[in-house]
Write a structure and sequence with these properties.
Blueprint: H1 3-20, E1 25-26, E2 37-43, E3 46-53, H2 56-62, H3 74-86, H4 95-100, H5 105-115, E4 119-124, H6 128-142
Antiparallel strand pairs: 1-4, 2-3, 2-4
Length: 152
Amino acid sequence: MNEDFKKIVDKLPDLLSRLINSPMKPWSDLGSVPRRGIYVFYENSKAIYVGRTNRMKDRIKEHGRPSSTHNSAPFAFNLAKRSGEEKGIDVSKPRVELEKDRLFVPFFREAKERVSKMSVRVIEINDPVLQTIFEVYTSIDLKTEFNDFDTH
């Protein structure tokens, strides 16, 4: 294994322990959070989505803000797609079209509201390579059901 990569991999378990032992903060009152790092959304104490950012507070808020679009609230959009599909909505359309679909709009609105009632845990990670690898590692370890590492 490449030595530089091994150094990153060796840090992952400790970072995960620090993250899952960090205080849970409500979306509505994040207080002070680091600027750069990884965040995990929790619903009913279950981790369901991991993200990474260089603007933590704003990024977390975007996921649940009523005015957010599919680009700024991909987590809520995926929640809405699942709910819509369960109710018979065709969610196979491109994201930009689906977001404007009058049948889909209420699902997206409800999903953003749902996100705004969740809690998050955060950890500061400034290195972009470590952020990237840790996001995937965390998602796999916590079995977050709404992470999608496919390209759009």
